[in-house]
Each structure stands twice: as C-alpha cells, then as structure tokens.
C-alpha cells in the first residue's frame, strides 16, 4: 500500500524550534540548533475560562494546529482532524491517581474531562467553532508515523484536506519512571490528497526497524527525548526542499517509508 499526500501548512514547537518559519533554517542546517527550553503558549483562541483549564500538552497541540492552519490559508472550522499523542495529559492523569489515594477519593469533573485522550481535539473544536469529525490516536514510540499514515489515508479516502496534529510532553513522577520523556515537542500538518505549497510525499509501511536518524547531535538527542520528535528526519527533509527518503518508526519492528518530493 502506497499513499500520496501534499502538505499545505506546517506548525512546529520544540526546544530551540519556535515555529516552522524559524525552525526550517535550523533543520536545513543553515542555523545552529540551540535547544532553548520550551514553555507551551496560552491558547489565545480559547475563551478565558477554557484557557485556564488547559494543560501543557493541549496548549502545545493548539499552538501548532493554529500555525499549520494559518500557513495553509484554509478555514480551520472546515477541516477534519487527526490528533496523535503517546502520553496524553500526564499531569492531569497523575493528579487524578493521587486524588484516588485520598480518603474520599473525589475526582474533579474538570480534571476528568481534561484527562481523556481526545481532550486536545475537543479544545480545538471549541477554539475554532468546529463540529467536523475528529480522530484521536496513540501509538507509543510510533505515534507520529501512525498518526501521519492515518491522516494521509483519510485525506486520500475523503478527497479533502485533513489537519494532523501530534503532541507530547514529559510525564511527571512517578509515571516518568515508566514512560521517560524529557522534552516537549509538537508538530502539525495540513495534508491534502494532491500536491501542496510545502511539497508532496508518498508513504508506505515496511517491515524492519527504522535506522538511526542522520541528524546533528542536539537534534538527535531531541529525536530520542520525545516520541513525536521522531518526526525530525521528515521535517529536516521538508526544510531542505530536495527529494529525500526517510524511514520513521512504527510498532512491532515496522517503519513508515516516506519519500519527499519538493
């Protein structure tokens, strides 16, 4: 199975990667990468009450989604969405687990609705006034490739653009001992079944593990520090703007071969 998709817009946030425009020069090797710590921006698209309830993972997701959609020039409320996260809102989940250990075991309803895996998708719908269909996925260390494959398949099947968002933040203790994630990272793409302004690529699942990425040391460290940052080889190829082939990790010793055309 081979799928083709075009890229109409990109959003990106990570340490030393403050948005796609600035990050493209770093990923193309024209500017040195300096991994400055990242603070998730407050989601200005949300009403103040909802804004205060969002956690760091949701904030990252909304920021890159807004950048990608703005880059595409498409109305955000008209896009179907695919959200992918390995860890979800770990801070909220930890808080709920701690509450269950108290004598009364009371859980805040606000915390509960922020703990579900589609919280980011729900907040995006509120932010842009969208009631379009949305899918929320996991995928452990293969979360980016899993989400990208699903979004590309959906764009091809429906014949219309899809907003794909992948986002993960570190887990707090004690969950971090079971799921180490040391950096924040999020990326969003508006995918279309035809060519787009940022280029075009084809995707095909393959057997065999993905090879280690050919990245500078600081970007290679970021690649290993966050499951969504496994997207970096693809993002670097897009930033360079020439034909390239990368392999992204999926589960069970499989990978996703992505061939990028400028």
Short note summarizing the structure:
Helices cover 35% and strands 23% of the residues.
Keywords:
single chain, 262 residues, alpha+beta, Peroxisomal Thiolase, Chain A, domain 1, 9-stranded mixed beta sheet, 9 helices, 9 strands, globular
Structure overview:
This protein is α+β, with helices and mostly antiparallel strands and 262 residues long. The chain has nine helices and nine strands. Strands 1, 2, 3, 4, 5, 6, 7, 8 and 9 form a nine-stranded mixed beta sheet that branches. Helix 1 (20-27) packs across helix 9 (232-240), helix 3 (56-72) packs across helix 6 and helix 4 (90-100) crosses helix 5. The two termini are 22 Å apart. The mean pLDDT is 92.
How are the SSEs placed, and which strands pair?
Elements: E1 3-14, E2 17-18, H1 20-27, H2 48-53, H3 56-72, E3 80-84, H4 90-100, H5 109-115, H6 119-128, E4 134-137, H7 143-158, E5 162-168, E6 185-192, E7 200-207, H8 217-225, H9 232-240, E8 244-249, E9 254-261
Parallel strand pairs: 3-4, 3-5
Antiparallel strand pairs: 1-2, 1-6, 1-7, 5-6, 7-9, 8-9
Helix pairs in contact: 1-9, 3-6, 4-5
Order of helices and strands: EEHHHEHHHEHEEEHHEE
Q: How much helicity do the residues have?
A: 25-40%
Net shape:
globular
Overall residue-averaged pLDDT value: 92
CATH topology: Peroxisomal Thiolase, Chain A, domain 1
CATH superfamily: Thiolase/Chalcone synthase
């Amino acid at each position: 199975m081979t799928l083709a998709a075009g890229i109409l817009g990109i959003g990106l946030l990570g340490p030393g990667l403050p948005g796609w425009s600035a990050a493209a020069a770093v990923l193309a090797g024209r500017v040195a990468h300096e991994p400055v710590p990242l603070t998730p921006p407050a989601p200005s698209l949300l009403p103040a009450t909802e804004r205060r309830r969002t956690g760091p993972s949701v904030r990252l997701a909304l920021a890159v989604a807004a950048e990608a959609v703005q880059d595409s020039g498409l109305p955000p409320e008209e896009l179907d969405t695919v959200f992918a996260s390995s860890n979800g809102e770990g801070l909220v989940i930890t808080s709920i687990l701690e509450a269950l250990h108290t004598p009364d075991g009371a859980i805040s309803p606000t915390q509960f609705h922020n703990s579900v895996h589609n919280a980011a998708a729900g907040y995006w719908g509120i932010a842009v006034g969208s009631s379009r269909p949305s899918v929320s996925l996991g995928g452990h260390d293969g979360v980016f490739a899993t989400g990208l494959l699903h979004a590309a398949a959906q764009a091809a099947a429906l014949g219309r653009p899809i907003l794909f968002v992948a986002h993960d933040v570190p887990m707090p203790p004690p969950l971090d001992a079971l799921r180490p994630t040391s950096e924040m990272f999020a990326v969003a793409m508006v995918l279309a079944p035809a060519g787009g302004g940022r280029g075009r690529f084809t995707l095909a699942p393959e057997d065999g593990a993905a090879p280690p990425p050919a990245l500078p040391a600081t970007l290679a460290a970021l690649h290993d520090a966050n499951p969504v940052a496994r997207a970096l080889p693809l993002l670097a190829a897009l930033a360079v703007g020439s034909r390239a082939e990368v392999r992204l990790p999926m589960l069970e010793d499989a990978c996703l071969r992505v061939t990028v055309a400028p």
